[in-house]
Amino acid sequence: MEKNVEIFIEKIIEKNPGEKEFHQAVREVAECVVPFIEKNPRYKKAKILERIAEPERIVMFRVPWLDDNGEIQINRGYRIQMNSAIGPYKGGLRFHPSVNLSILKFLAFEQVFKNSLTTLPMGGGKGGSNFDPKGKSDNEVMKFCQSFMSELYRHIGPDTDVPAGDIGVGGREIGFLFGQYRKICNKFTGILTGKALNWGGSLIRPEATGYGAVYFAEEMLKTRNSSIKGKTCTVSGSGNVAQYTIEKLNHLGAKAVTLSDSSGMIYDPDGIDEKKLAYVMELKNIKRGRIQEYSEKYGVEYVSNKRPWHIPCDIAFPSATQNEISKEDAKKLVDNGCICVSEGANMPTVPEGVDIFLDANILYGLGKAANAGGVATSGLEMSQNSLKLTWTREEVDERLHNIMRSIHSACIKYGKDGKCVNYVKGANIAGFVKVADAMIDQGLV
Ligand code: NDP
Ligand code: 2IT
Q1: What's the Cα-to-Cα distance from 406 to each of 76, 339, 365, rounded to whole Å?
Q2: Which residue from 99, 122, 166, 368 has its CB within 8 A of the most atoms of ligand 2, so it is best to mutate?
Q3: Which of 19, 91, 150, 399 has its CA 20 to 30 A from that of 369?
Q4: Ligand 1 pocket list (CB less than 6 A)
Q5: pTM of the predicted model over 0.90
Q6: DSSP state of 284
Q7: CATH architecture classification, 57-189
Q8: What kind of architecture, by CATH, is found in domain 208-370?
């Protein structure tokens, strides 16, 4: 079995040289799915895994724009249309200077399995640009978004491909992108999710990824007769996912004690309560400041260039970026008594770290299961756009909660290992089966 995984990965590396994040994401899936395929020869014969690892289409394009000094800037735009066997391509756009083909291919690949797990009819895609929104004026961000959409518009549509937000793309960017699409196409349709409420957005979409990661942790804890209430939690990042993770933790009586950004982290042992969270939202979403300012305002510890994993906690919610939990961080978390990790970010734990969590038998909810609430609620936004109706906050939250429960059940179905659940195995196989069956049904396309 192991040998078959190695042979498969070697071919992936040869075909996609230098794309280390993509190799990492494919390897994780292959380690779970190859042994399953060995027992289910119809998937092997149809070469489903080989086909899933090859994007259906990749679009790369020039994004020229004029900055506030009148100087021309040129960025690169991408859209990876990975798999549409079970629905239109769906997945976020990331604007960050680190963006490259490898990172977007890993994200698009993960998205295929994640979207399959949501129970909704969505294929997988991802896109973005190496544009850095940090330090740019609203006018510059608008100029960039308009130029980006001037090419992207021809590749998307409500039944073709529906992008959304990710790192560096929030409500402001979705607004500028939508406006440009509407102007070019003269159509008001649901071509993006994460829209504002007064022009086609869904209640709970901003909250959904963070809330979903907490709901998923709650389901995992239930399997050990435990709950969120009273737990001390470390959270990384301070953007959309981190903020609403903390909001839900506060609702459920837990205490979140850390936040971070790409410059450093804060540790607030008294807990980031509702009032402090409102300050963080204003700081990050409106003033676009640095998390260091929190430590100055509330007189707590700030450590530059550090992530929060050395702080003792019961539950960790990595909510910043990929590979933000190293092997040493994972070991520290386990040694300090952490019993549960629920990943709001995509692939935040390095493979050696994942092994440490699995060996220690803690509750480890990998990103493609734990953070699927965001895209699931995007799916609910698409449904409301098609129906030309809006659902209440309670209705959307209830649907989100049910979807997170059903993802947890799917992980148990395929990942139960004696008394324990291997969520990595469960999520990867459950996500795979639905897409694989659809691909077989639809023939060699
Ligand atoms: P935001 O842009 O709102 O926030 C990102 C946060 O992570 C910021 O605090 C940012 O710091 C920090 N961060 C980003 N890149 C790095 C880096 N290279 N090193 C250290 N810190 C970094 O993004 P989101 O909250 O939307 O996304 C966070 C994670 O969640 C990502 O992995 C994303 O893929 C994932 N995710 C998001 C979903 C969504 O619906 N938004 C859905 C599912 C997953 P700084 O302010 O310094 O840039
Ligand atoms: O990684 C993700 O699932 C997202 N960034 C959300 C994608 C979406 O289409 O809502």
Answers
A1: 38, 22, 14
A2: 166
A3: 19
A4: 165-168, 170, 209, 237-241, 261-263, 319-321, 344-346, 371, 374
A5: yes
A6: I
A7: 3-Layer(aba) Sandwich (3.40)
A8: 3-Layer(aba) Sandwich (3.40)
